[in-house]
From TrEMBL:
A Pfam entry, by short name: 6TM_PilS
InterPro entries: HATPase_C_sf, HATPase_dom, His_kinase_dom, HisK_dim/P_dom, HisK_dim/P_sf, PAS, PAS-like_dom_sf, Sig_transdc_His_kin-like_C
One Gene Ontology term from the biological process aspect of the record: regulation of DNA-templated transcription
Protein's UniProt name: histidine kinase
Start and end residues of each Histidine kinase domain: 321-530
């Protein structure tokens, strides 16, 4: 196995940093030698055989150690060349210092051992054994040269051989340790990349979740929030770093309850800056502590749509039972009342009674029809279309069906290119119900006002259906979307209920936006454009 440097990688930076430490060690050793030469008499065995050579070599060694910082700073030439060059300088300079200071008995062989070990750790491989061989030859050559030039003391070849063997052992150990260190570094770098990728993946998942996610710290400040949370709360700015009380006071109250009580069931809130109901669920990040809180936000209309699928199954079975148990007897009653009403022997009072039978039979039949309409309703078939063109066609058809003049129905769409994704047939059924109710109660021109726009903060399209009537009583307004709630003696009380069910089936919401003495305003909020793919 060979180690390669990858420019710009963390492994590359660690290797260069290690080489800088090795250069720093060389600078300190050479500085000590120069200081001894300049400031004091050399203690034995320094310069014992040749003090002038010792002074010359140590000063040259110091100068070389100083100049080596320049290519180290520039990182040129390459890492391997700089390691080899520094180790060669160490071996050459220390061997000369050893020669000038009583040979191998001076103890400078330890400095050679450090040079070999440093080269082996910085540059493992066959070159590590080359460093050991070069140091061994330098020591043996120094002893041989001393034996030929000087006649005393006697050369210590045994000591030199043992020192050379130690060099090879140090090179082997350094080589193995370096390989193990590099394997660990490469494994750590690989794991770090995996962790970074996993963190990036988690961030992408969180940011693109349809559910909103908030991380709340102990001070009730938002530490993390994804884009869905920002849209559900109707916030324009980034939520991270903002206190919850300034973003959504309604949510802050439940967070305080969760911290004080320890548990908090999911709650549905209506943020003051949003036009949709939001279900919030709370999970402590550290159970048993107060460090943080994880809050999940869900669009309540989506949850209602899921619950509605189960509701529709139950309503289907109920409608089949009603059709079997009520419709057949009702038909017999209606038919008998009709035959009785045709009898010539009835007086005016009896005819009035038969008329009542017929009227209420029709009303019960209408209730059955409406319930069956809810139960038999097919799944939405959403389409994406321009709302302005669709509303223009709808208003024209509505005027024609109700024989209304042009000024009776006012429609405004801003901007003109609003796109919505919804089942157009079910939207038409909702609009017919709302517009028929508005027309029934309106007294002034225009009888019906339809305004279509886009929320500035939520980017959700909406339609307002406004009448010019007297408004509705508070008791009725509070339960206007519940089944069988009506102020009309002949009404079934299922029209607005069915309209809201149709909206929720398409992930839209229907609400009583305004109720006053000058009229009512019902608003349809369409799904956010980013959530169209859910319906599609």
């Amino acid at each position: 196995m060979s180690a390669r440097l990858i420019p710009g990688s963390d492994y590359d930076e660690v290797a260069w940093r290690a080489l800088s430490f090795f250069s720093g060690y060389r600078f300190i050793i050479s500085l000590i030698f120069v200081a001894l030469v300049w400031l004091t008499d050399l203690p034995e065995p320094l310069g014992t055989f040749d003090d002038r050579l010792f002074a010359l070599v140590t000063q040259a060694y110091f100068l070389a150690a100083l100049l080596l910082f320049v290519p180290l700073r520039l990182r040129w030439p390459g890492f391997g060349y700089q390691v080899a060059g520094q180790v060669f300088i160490d071996i050459f300079a220390i061997t000369l210092i050893m020669y000038a200071s009583a040979g191998v008995s001076s103890g400078f062989g330890m400095l050679l051992m450090i040079a070999v070990a440093g080269g082996s750790l910085l540059k493992p491989g066959k070159i590590a054994y080359f460093f050991a061989a070069l140091a061994t030859l330098a020591v043996l050559g120094e002893e041989l040269y001393a034996h030929l030039v000087r006649f005393f003391p006697a050369p210590n070849y045994t000591h030199a051989a043992v020192l050379g063997s130690t060099f090879f052992i140090v090179a082997f150990i350094g080589h193995k340790l370096a390989l193990r260190v590099r394997e660990s570094e490469q494994l750590a770098a690989s794991r770090a990349i995996d962790i970074q990728n996993l963190a990036a993946l988690n961030e992408q998942i969180v940011q693109h979740m349809q559910s909103g996610v908030l991380v709340i710290d102990a001070d009730n400040s938002i530490r993390l929030a994804n884009s869905s949370a920002r849209k559900l709360l109707g916030a324009r700015q980034e939520l991270a770093g903002q206190p919850v009380t300034s973003v959504c006071p309604e949510l802050n109250w439940f967070i305080e309850q969760c911290r004080s009580q320890g548990e908090q069931a999911p709650v549905v809130i209506r943020p003051s800056t949003a036009a949709v109901d939001v279900q919030a669920s709370f999970r402590p990040l550290n159970p048993g502590g107060d460090a943080g809180l994880l809050v999940f936000l869900e669009d309540a209309s989506v949850l209602r749509q899921r619950a509605q699928q189960m509701k529709l199954a139950s309503l289907g079975r109920m409608a089949a039972s009603i059709a079997h148990e009520v419709r057949n007897p009702l038909g017999a009653i209606s038919h008998a009342g009709q035959l009785l009403g045709e009898s010539p022997q009835l007086d005016a009072g009896d005819r009035r009674l038969t008329a009542i039978i017929q009227d209420h039979s029709k009303r019960v039949n209408a209730i059955v029809e409406n319930v069956m309409q809810v139960s038999r309703r097919q799944a939405p078939a959403p389409e994406t279309f321009e709302l302005g063109n669709w509303l223009e066609e709808f208003c024209s058809e509505f005027r024609h069906q109700n024989d209304l003049p042009e000024a009776a129905v006012f429609c405004r769409v801003e901007p003109a290119d609003i796109l919505v994704t919804i089942d157009p047939s079910q939207l038409q059924q909702v609009m017919l119900n709302l517009c028929s109710n508005a027309l029934r109660y309106s007294r002034n021109e225009p009888l019906l006002t339809i305004i279509c726009g886009v929320h500035d903060d939520l980017e959700r399209p909406y339609i307002d259906v406004i009448d010019q009537g007297p408004g509705m009583p508070v008791a009725i307004a509070e339960h206007v979307f519940e089944p069988f709630v009506t102020s009309e003696s002949q009404g079934t009380g299922l029209g607005l209920y069915i309209a809201r069910e149709l909206c929720e089936a398409n992930q839209a919401t229907l609400q009583l936006h305004d109720n006053s003495e000058t009229g009512c305003c019902f608003r349809i909020n369409f799904p956010h454009p980013d959530k169209r793919h859910i319906l599609e």
